[in-house]
Amino acid sequence: MTSSRAGDLPSDAAPRVGDTGDRVRVSTATPWEPIVGYSRAIRAGAHIHVSGTTATDESGELVGIGDPYAQAVQCLRNIESALRSAGGSLSDVVRTRMYVTDISRWEAVGRAHGEFFAEIRPATSMVQVSALIMPEMLVEIEAEAIVGQESNG
Fold this sequence. Notes:
Elements: E1 16-20, E2 23-27, H1 32-36, E3 41-44, E4 47-53, H2 68-85, E5 93-100, H3 106-117, E6 123-128, E7 139-146
């Protein structure tokens, strides 16, 4: 992926944290964040909102081309990294949203989600979308967390 492609928009390389008063902003330093006006994640008080996250690695390359399970795993690893950068963890997640380009392959995405959240069991949705930023992207996942809340399974 090159920095001139729109596919760089959801890149998840090396999150950086910036404190802006009541908000803590997590940035991946992609060129698209300031252009589009978004952050990888925002922490406001105990709440962390993680933007739609795709299967890009630290260098901005798409992981798992053609494999929805591998892409979901990478999305969730990227979400975990953003949460840590904002002072949270996967155990703080209360809601996820999964966007897939082919709902008939839902089980692969669901399996990855279950591996990360089996004991946490956040509220979730999985919906089919017609396309993501790049045609090779099969999965995008968002997360919301509340730091300090206990999960009662």
